Amino acid sequence: MAKASYGAGSTSLNDFKQQGALGEGAYSTVYKVTRLADGKVYALKKVKLPSLSEKEKQNALNEVRLLASIKDHYIIDYKEAFFDDKSRCLCIVQEFASAGDLFQQISKCQKDKTHLREADVWRYLYGMCMGLRALHDMRILHRDLKSANVFLSTDKDGATAKLGDFNVSKVAKRGLCMTQTGTPYYASPEVWRDMPYDAKSDMWSLGCVLYEMVGLRPPFKSEDMEGLYRKVLKGQYPRIPAQYSQDMNEVISKLLQVNPRHRPTVDELLQTPVMRRHMIGSAMQPPTQLGEMKSVNNLLQTIKLPKNVIDISVLLPKPRYDLPKAIEEDIPPKERSMNTMRHERQELQEISRGLDRESYSSVPPPPQPPINSLLRGAAAVGYQHSSVGSETNLRSSAGNQHGEAVDSLDMYLQQRDQPSHRPMYAPIVREPSVASSAVAPPVRTHSLQPRIAASASRPVMSNYVRAQYQLNTQAPPPMPTPNGGGSSLRLPRIS
Fold this sequence. Notes:
By secondary structure, the chain is an alpha+beta fold.
């Protein structure tokens, strides 16, 4: 696939190479795939839409909507969503968590009979808190926070916990929800009682996941649902292993409060002294700067699935792949189509700003001589032509500056006799007098007749013609007399 389509959306599963299955649910399967356009690894979730009920179809579209609405470091990044016609599946492409999920880490510790390091537990807790903070700021309740939905992504500072799987997440427009949902082991007491709940319900689930990380088992377990219900309402759980600090036990006790009023919000938890002690001096951001780390996200509109829909691709959000800044340097300009260039300008604004400027070369206008020097001859003569006549007059003025003999009257007569170049008269521009200010604008006088300066009186025609022929002389030659023996001056006739 051409590199020019790096940021373009996919149309089918043929744009990916499947490497293996990562997990499987009742109606969906997650695969590890390689995108052919960029060669990067992603997680692709296939949802079998035909086998779902209307409510389950809406939940799948709701997950796409929420994922595409949030751009946060502690939330699994959304890449794109499309509908594959061949398999009739909704495909959701997401960031690939290179270290798996938290449930896999806990299962590995159970198998190896070891425990997670406390420093790792604090780092995972911080990531989950920041992820919940991004959701709760947008009034989104996760409603299914559990260890299997906490993904681990490795970076230079170690593994970072990120939240994902928003299949049953909901926007609490009025602050409270009523629907019973989620995994029973992590459900809050208010959900068990079928009471209205808010973001504090997610904090209870956070306490259950935190306890599971240190105890390698959920805090409340029973062989039947009735026994689990009673244990959750009592809020009694076994003590955590002795190898963990008292600070860890204190945070768990704050979160696993049966009364939601006694539980802290995610911001209150991050501001507690115990959390501050374990964040300062580590790779985690101190609470004093948390206000500057809030992400600005806009919640997309609800994706409503019409009845008897054939293609839902037009309803899905746009792709959001990370494009390299040097992508344009690898593509010759001749190989780019206009559609590709338009798409790249939308995705890479920092590259496209110079695209239009480089595509069109601006030719500088030819240098123009000073207007005063060009119009000096026309002002002295008393008239000026526009179009062809003005160009001729300017050339005659320039010739006078070099001492050449130019007959302006003959030019005027020649131009007047040409029907295709009939002269048009333009307004006269007079130069300011010596006494006037240097910055005063020139006086423009509009006239339809050839005129001399407005301050002088109109001379007779013979004097006007002499001025045309003897414009650059110091003094006019003496007029021949009949007694002088010379021939009389023959003036051209003006018709």
